[in-house]
Request: fold
Amino acid sequence: MDTISRSSLFNGLPEDQIRKVSEIASDEDFKKGATIFLEGDDGNGFYLIHAGMVKIYKASPGGKEQILHILGPGEPFGEVPVFSGRQFPANAEAISETRLLFFPRTAFVNLISTNPSLSLNMLAVLSLRLRQFTLQIENLSLKEVPGRLAGYLGYLSSKQEKKELVLLDISKVQLASLLGTIPETLSRIFSKMSDQGLIEVKGREIRILDSDRLARLASDGKSTML
Reply:
């Protein structure tokens, strides 16, 4: 119940409704690298992350991967088929040891029909997810890779307590996929940003040395700013 009540999807619901939601949930554990569902699988329910991390991604027939979201504790995924009754539109994989709460579609729809406030929360989360997709499409189509990386570092900085010190919570291979590039290109951009005094990189720890220039690069999106 504590995990459910803290999530964006159920935040603010009274305790009796949280209890009803918890009664239809079941625990599922996944090892690192395990597939949770594949694109085209029947959307028979959705998930909430209790612990661990999950990537949502699309894959081409040739094996190229584009990460759409990296999600952590308290975040839901696979919600769209709950309303549409269709298949999952992307793949989901655990990128660490992960424990999930699973909510079966039929039981959850029945619960929503008697609790309108629950449906309003869900619409708010779906609206936020749509906004995230819109920003990602803008970044991938209008910004060059250095601008995408600068924007992502700024996003991580805004979420962390020490704004000048960013800790990557995913591997650089996964980060490259999230930004729509390849690891070799990402490494070159990290090196160039370091040489020009924007950042200092030590493994997954990145110190932001010039936040103003980094913000301008994120906003402009042009590699010529480097």
Summary: The CA atoms of residues 47 and 77 lie 5 Å apart. The first helix runs from residue 2 to 6. The domain at 2-117 is CATH 2.60.120.10 (Jelly Rolls). The chain has a mean pLDDT of 86.
